[in-house]
Amino acid sequence: MWQIIQTASPQLIKAGLKYTIPIALIAFAIGLAIALVTALIRLSSKRGGFLAIKVLFRFYVWVFRSTPLLVQLFIVYFGLPYLKIRGLSPHGIQLDPVVAGILTFSLNTGAYCSETIRASILSIDQGQWEAAYSIGMTRTMALFRIILPQAIRISLPPLANSFISLVKDTSLAASITIVEMFEVSQQIAAQNYQPLVMYMLVAVYYAVFCTVLTWLQGYLEKVTSRYIVAK
């Protein structure tokens, strides 16, 4: 068993550093940008034609929160090549596995994190807005100077949890041929006929990555809460 661990560990770590962590970081960064835009649009008080855009973003959130991530991956990677649109994509939309994975993870993360950000903004007392307006700030100025900094502190724990979950969810990328840690463990298990050892080993490495991220989350929470007075 120890020989298997010594042989497999470098391959698993390499796959984790080459695919698992980079895919999670890129997808989460893009997902956060999507989440912020989605949350702000859904909180906008504009009416008229803008209402259709709000409905569209609400539909996006509903779709990605109501369907399994694995199904979304299959639709993007295996399904889109069959989406043939004359003049736009006559041969379907064929994406590289890594691109398809990042796109799917980003959209899924954006849908979930948008609700976190939206709830954090709504949790800020209305008096904060009124105080900002009283000193001549516009709604945009109040949002970016007063409300969002407070909302970021509030949303940090659930957003960090979403990122940790995303790191674990990247194991689903094996289903679309991305050679990340779980896929490597499957390949090695098929060679040495020791699936229990391999799957337990890859579980340990996922646990190590997530533990480090949990420590980082705790540090960030302390940093962002250093000016909060305990009651």
How does this structure look, described?
The chain is an all-alpha fold. The chain has a single domain, classed as MetI-like (MetI-like fold, Orthogonal Bundle), CATH 1.10.3720.10. The protein has eight helices and no strands. Helix 1 crosses helix 8. The termini are far apart. The mean pLDDT is 91.
Main features:
amino-acid transport; MetI-like fold; membrane; 77% helix; mainly alpha; 231 residues
Going by CATH, the architecture would be Orthogonal Bundle
Count of individual domains: 1
How many angstroms separate the termini?
53 Å
Could you report the average pLDDT, rounded to the nearest whole number?
Answer: 91
Task: Assess the beta-strand content as a share of residues.
Answer: under 5%
Query: Largest sheet, described in full?
Result: none
Q: Which CATH C-level class is it?
A: Mainly Alpha
Portion in helices: over 70%
Report the C-alpha radius of gyration, rounded.
21 Å
Helix-strand string: HHHHHHHH
Shape: flat
What is the CATH topology classification name?
MetI-like fold
Structural class: mainly alpha
Low-confidence stretches: none
- Number of alpha- plus pi-helical segments: 8
Number of strands: 0
CATH homologous superfamily annotation: MetI-like
